[in-house]
Design brief:
Layout (H helix, E strand, L loop, with lengths): L1 H21 L9 H27 L6 H4 L2 H34 L17 H8 L1 H23 L5 H7 L2 H16 L8 H21 L8 E12 L4 E8 L11 E5 L7 E4 L9 E7 L3 H9 L5 E8 L10 E7 L4 H13 L5 E7 L4 H14 L1 E7 L8 H7 L6 E6 L2 H14 L6 E3 L6
Parallel strand pairs: 7-8, 7-10, 8-9, 10-11
Antiparallel strand pairs: 1-2, 1-6, 2-5, 3-4, 3-6
Helix pairs in contact: 1-2, 2-4, 2-8, 2-9, 4-6, 6-8, 8-9, 11-12
């Protein structure tokens, strides 16, 4: 989380400082219209910066994963950028509309329109000649943007519809780029704020085209076929075994993939529950958790084609500490199953304790996980909801010798993870030693 927090704050601070360097005449000035012009520039410049970066992240650039902590963290940053872009867009729109309403309220005097001379020659004159069109396009794009962002944030709006409507965001973004290029203060283009804006808008526009052409992740996709299904109704878990028919570079234990079982529904992210054996086989453990996943046991059939895109994520257990503590909440056991399979093959040279807090646990599932733990030399602790006391930070510390010398890898409900993180930090766990996958894509 700290990676994306620093990046987010750094982006806002950088563009704000560059804007101040380029447009500081408003400081100490009492004229409302001078302030309005300056902050219209600020909201416009910063708004396009966050939307450009959000557009870039939308195409899943794997080169940024090591720097931002994985695609799950990048999607969290994408959400923050979208909300920030929405707030800045509203502010930008309100500033643009404010003179009419403030004059009607009698709070300010109607400004005297200056006499306009001939347009400058060259690019500046060309841009100025298109200002009215850019303003109209920007206003209508703003209304569409607000509608799309609000739909994306409404959890009740079905994912399969979000999958389709969110794609229109790329077209709206391209319209806003044209709006920004025409209306940005011309002197900005020769300064840092304009140059950095230009770079982000070029990259964002390229990403928007990739999205509109439906080419996101195209080189990381493999066609597969469902070769086995096993539904466990008591725990609400469906195991889906897939045989890949296309090229797959392999994956690290703990990574996830976007899987398409039904093109009309679109992609859904699932943790890969098996270690890569270089044989084209992998499986997913999918928990009933919504309309879509609840329907899979009846919809999926052996022999059905599917598409797997990935792998993504940095929940890959890479650390140099003497020991590791794993904590799984329910279906959060999936990355640890894959990791135990990998350790059984390559060997485990450090002590590992796995705490699994689960509500419903079938004997067969427990035997399989216990067998994987034995092969990987992992000590398994099972905490059954309703039978055992809830798993807490003090309980973990009491069960693991020298726990403070290790790091913690958590996969499960976000609230559960936040409580454990806070509790362990209070007990002395060092900063940066709690790793949590934020498996929430909207």
């Amino acid at each position: 989380m700290k990676h994306i927090q620093r990046f987010y704050l750094g982006l806002i601070a950088t563009f704000t400082l560059l804007w101040l360097w380029a447009d500081s005449a408003w400081i100490g000035n009492n004229d409302y219209f001078v302030w309005r012009s300056a902050f219209t520039n600020w909201t416009g410049v910063l708004g396009m910066a966050v939307m450009s970066l959000g557009m870039i992240l939308a195409v899943r650039p794997v080169s940024l994963e090591p720097h931002l902590g994985g695609l799950d963290k990048m999607y969290r940053l994408h959400k923050w950028l979208g909300i920030t872009g929405f707030v800045l867009s509203v502010m930008h729109w309100a500033l643009a509309k404010s003179p009419r309403y403030l004059v009607n309220l009698g709070w300010i005097e109607r400004p005297i329109r200056p006499v306009r001379g001939p347009l400058p020659e060259g690019i500046e004159g060309l841009l100025m000649s298109q200002r009215k069109l850019a303003e109209v396009l920007g206003e209508y794009a703003f209304y569409v943007l607000c509608a799309l962002l609000l739909l994306a944030l409404i959890k009740r709006f079905p994912y399969k519809h979000i999958f389709k409507t969110h794609r229109w965001m790329a077209l709206v973004y391209l319209v806003l780029v044209a709006h920004a290029v025409v209306l940005m203060k011309f002197s900005f283009w020769s300064q840092g704020v304009g140059l950095l804006s230009a770079v982000l808008m070029v990259l964002g526009s390229a990403a928007a085209v990739v999205s509109l052409l439906r080419r996101i992740g195209i080189h990381r996709r493999a066609v597969g076929e469902i070769e086995a299904l096993a539904h466990h109704p008591e725990s609400g878990v469906l195991r889906v075994d897939v045989r890949l028919q296309g090229h797959w570079d392999g994956h690290e234990a703990g990574q996830f993939a976007f899987v398409t079982f039904d093109p009309a529904e679109g992609q859904h992210p699932f943790t890969i529950s098996s270690a890569w054996q270089n044989d084209g086989h992998l499986f997913f453990l999918i928990k009933d958790g919504g309309d879509y996943t609840n329907s899979l046991p009846t919809k999926l059939k052996v022999g059905q084609p599917c598409t797997v895109e990935g792998p993504y994520g940095r929940f890959v257990f890479d650390s140099n500490v003497p020991r590791q503590i794993w904590v799984a909440g329910g279906i959060g056991i999936t990355p640890f199953i894959a990791r135990m399979q990998a350790l059984a093959k390559q060997g485990n040279n450090k002590p590992v304790d796995l705490f699994w807090s689960v509500r419903v646990l079938e004997d067969e599932a427990l035997h399989r996980v216990q067998a994987d733990a034995n092969k990987a030399n992992v000590r398994l602790h099972v905490i059954r909801d309703g039978q055992n006391a809830p798993l807490t930070a003090p309980h973990i510390a009491s069960q693991v010798p020298s726990w403070g010398q290790g790091d913690v890898w958590f996969c499960g409900p976000i609230g559960f993870g936040a409580a454990l993180r806070e509790g362990l930090h209070r007990l002395g766990l060092g900063s940066g030693h709690f790793h949590q996958e934020l498996f929430q894509m909207r």
